[in-house]
Amino acid sequence: MQYGRFDDARREYVITTPRTPLPWINYLGSEEFFTILSNTAGGYSFYRDARLRRLTRYRYNNAPLDQEGFHVYIRDGETVWNPGWQPTQTELDRYECRHGLGYTLIEGGKNGVLARQELLVPQGDNCLLMRLTLRNESGAAKRLRVFPYVEFCLWDAMDDSSNFQRNFSTGEVEVVGPAIYHKTEYRERRDHYAVFWADRQPDAFDTARDAFLGVYGSPARPEAVFGGGCTGSLAHGWQPVAAQQFDLPLAPGAEETILFGLGYIENPAAEKFTAPGVVNKSRAEAMMARYADAASFDAALEALRGHWSALLGGFQVSTGEAKLDRMVNIWNQYQCMVTFNMSRSASYFESGMGRGMGFRDSCQDLLGFVHMIPERARQRILDIAATQFPDGSAYHQYQPLTKKGNLAVGSGFNDDPLWLIAGTDAYLRETGDWSILDELCDFDNDPQLAQPLLEHLRRSFRYTCTHLGPHGLPLIGRADWNDCLNLNCFSEHPGESFQITGPSEGPVAESVFIAGMFVKYGRAWAAICRHLGLDAEAAEAETAIADMEKTVLDAGWDGEWFRRAYDAFGHVIGGRECEEGQIFIEPQGMCVMAGIGKESGEAARALRSVEERLDTKYGIVLLQPAYTRYHLELGEISSYPPGYKENAGIFCHNNPWIVCAETELGHGDRAFEVYRRTCPAFIEDISEIHRTEPYVYSQMVAGRDAPSFGEGKNSWLTGTAAWTFLSVSQAILGVKPTLDGLAIDPCVPADVKGFSVVRRYRGAEYRIRVENPDGVQKGVRRMLVDGKAADGNLIPVQPAGSVVEVLVTMG
Ligand code: BGC
Ligand code: NOJ
Q1: Residues 6+ apart with CB under 8 A from 794
Q2: pTM for the full model?
Q3: Is the minimum distance from the CB of 344 to ligand 2 under 6 angstroms?
Q4: Is the pLDDT of residue 155 over 90?
């Protein structure tokens, strides 16, 4: 069942009922001011940091669901309704929500009145704009009362939801004309305030929630709306809100538009006040003035469209398969940008108060957005590297505002260092900007310890070399990519962290997955060394890699698949002798991507085992058989009921590893099949089962052991975005940036006759046409670059500004 449809020409997803299986959201803003917005206008805004600079309040995990947001109430006679249906849930005569790239349009109609609510965060400004258009299509005169409403958060979202003894007494506002200023804590430690404004004078307002909703009222039934209107309340403590009332007579056929804004303003300390206690509003007034002109909203919308066209223009494919094209050209790249902006902080599953930026997550996210914004990728790499420790290990997380590592979580996730090589390598292949390796980056955020980025990569590589276990495989530490495989933790008490309880640097537990990473990204490190003329170092690295390959094929091979790990007692994990958890997806994906066992046959055998044992109609599950009881020696993984999350859920993140692995072996049919099964656009018609948004990936889909097999969770903020984009653009469509230029190496289903890609790369535009006359799955027979036969399938780097025609014949 579908709850909407794709509108590819406008790059929108059109939701046609407000009763989606879960709120389906969008992200507005891609610089410093952000808003999360659901299809019924629920959500919240924040400036840079979803925890520390939360502008509006949102109650997670609440019932009824998704009540706080950017709602407008319309009172028409005795009927009160919202254009987005929530929170009153008054049945609408018509409804449509269009989530576009950086904007959302919600249209609702009731009793002959059409209301259109358009929301966006303009480029280059710290505010949310909301344009409301009301049209009377009823044929009779109407007297409407219109009320916009937002509830302010007292800035620190964590404190806001726990420290009530203080917070019920600190709230402060000022009201000047059509602007409501939220200035809690401005008198002392804050130099920022929020402003909610309208572009015309309201007939009344409220700033105290009790006055607007009623002490026992609710967003679904605000007293002011259902009763006699706003009262002019001024919040002192309790809950400051911004509510306004507009009395609007609307003749038949007439239309009225009101523009609202919610802005974030910072004042320099010396300019905070214009009189004792009175906020200096000049910056807010300048912001309001920027949108005073009716054309300014349209201009902001146009600018957004241009921005996204430019970003997405770096990779556009045309295959004739609409679902594939729309994911690659629009939604998958869009999701990659959102993960760049948010990391794992704020979604409808991430409260914005939890983890900061993950070291591993941020490095992997890079793989998906580096082609769109290489300059920002560069800065991100340098920020991440500065949280590495001198021995090559790394803080597992860091804070976006301070860019400092999180002491509370610390380090010891032994895959982390290698991801820094992965991210930097992707940047180098994309940009050819070798100067990044000379940039000085702190270790442990300490400028005294700064070293060139190259030295950081060296220490990343060496960290694995110096942390090997009894079999010669890498020690796992607190966990590797699988945060829930906690082999040195032994947590027995509720509330203990699964990751950081117990000895971190267990000297026994080893990871075959990290071994695969070491081979794959170690090769990248060796290639970087070669490029720099560090031949001895490259050779040394290659020897260590070759040794590791042997070790994997020996201690890491189970006969039909790669083992997962060895636990703290030296027992095999992910082997046939295990009662549960006999086979895991991660080492199959990573070891085959690394090329381990490619010549000797283990790679192909491992992928067959994946197909035989882990495949389901909704994707590949993480492991089988699922753990049915808690295994103290394995940790969090066995704490999840079978079929969920890392315990045999379909972890969408590592499905693309299998896609990439299959293409390594030339299996184009299978690679595409694996891609298709988790791809949102291909499963749009089972939205009642999948439940999460059909335009973005979820981190996890419940596996076959779960009662809710096929149900998605944790949509939006997941490494799945980057990895699927990489798998489809580089592994399937075969447009691969290398250190020396763009290589074309498609691996497609045999029935694909051809496709075209436009790829921006190092300043030039490559127009690539691939033809597959013989119906092969892999192999390039011939390549013409601007009509001239190329040597092999590598396009030499072309001058910036040039347009290059490339014709590739598979065979
Ligand atoms: C989740 C993992 C996640 C980890 C992050 C765990 O509870 O299951 O998917 O990586 O938390 O801290
Ligand atoms: C989500 C985390 O953000 C990521 O870092 C981790 O690799 C996966 N979960 C798997 O546990």
Answers
A1: 738, 740, 741, 742, 743
A2: 0.98
A3: yes
A4: yes
